[in-house]
Amino acid sequence: MADRDFQERTEKATPRRREKARDEGKVAKSQELNAAAIITLGFLTLYMVGPSLTSQVWGYMSYMFSNAPAIAASDPTFVSIFQGSMFKFFSMLLPVFAILTAVAFGVNVAQVGFKISSKAMEPKFEKLNVITGAKRLFSMRSLVQLLRDTLKLIIIATVAYFSLKSEFPSFFLLADMNTTQIAGTMGTLAVTLALKIGGAYLAIAFLDFLYQRYEFEKSIRMSKQEIKEEHKDTEGNPQLKGRLRQVQRQMSQGRMMKAVPKADVVIKNPTHLAVALKYDPTEGTAPIVLAKGERLVAQRIIQIAEAHDIPVIEDKPLARALFKMCEVGQMVPANLYRAVAEVLAYVYRLKGKVIK
Fold first, then answer.
1. What is the mean pLDDT of the segment spanning 156-161?
2. Which domains does the chain have, with CATH numbers?
3. What is residue 247's predicted lDDT score, i.e. its pLDDT?
């Protein structure tokens, strides 16, 4: 056991190991990619539907303020008015929420596929271990995360700075704009800035996904001994399988030998091969192979046949053809009918029978 634990894990994980890790919730997944995709595509959605959404909100607000006296008179408590307003706003934002939900679900499925695992939701009390937590805190993975977060902040800050710097000349034009124009300009600027930052964040997140995939592949590597043990578990012990095959062969040979006394003739070559045949017109249109074998098995078939006064005919070509082309329990193929019929006719003449 100790040797196995300290063996170097240099082999790629097997499909069974991957499935086991997946059942336990261990997958190559980047949380950064989820966040980056939601931010970037979320603001892209706002950029595309923003004018329409703004127009709807502006129209509803204009209606509310223009008809405030009549609306207030219809419900002095403002309960139904508040409920109606909330429902209206949520209806306007529903497409955005639906797109963000689809993006979040799609990014997760794209990374790890779709699978519901109960083991991944089970509480893991080993995470409460202080020593284990300290090891994770000062591990290489934590160092990489620190460097990644630092790099992320630097890149995002740099992109934000240069994006704002490029817009500085337009800030001087705000003094000549009315409130509506200023709001529209600042909104467009904010969404554009968010899209640029989101694009940079998405690039960082993709690199993080590649790193998470590398770490995952490294964590599920297997030693050669583990692969051997898994092979034994899935395919069975080779020695046990060999013994099982041997027992199955012995049982098959035993049944085959019990059928030899029912044969009409045994064709041999001369001691290397032996094939026992039986012809019953009521059971089939052609003779059936009851038993066949080579070397010691052939000698045993011949011995049983001689002990039961079954004719043993030496015909080397026919014995080889029957042994090669027929399995036990099968009928003789059509291209061997003539040769077998001649042998059976000879045997029946010896016994005084007539072929029907």
1. 85
2. 15-232 (no CATH), 255-351 (3.40.1690.10)
3. 66
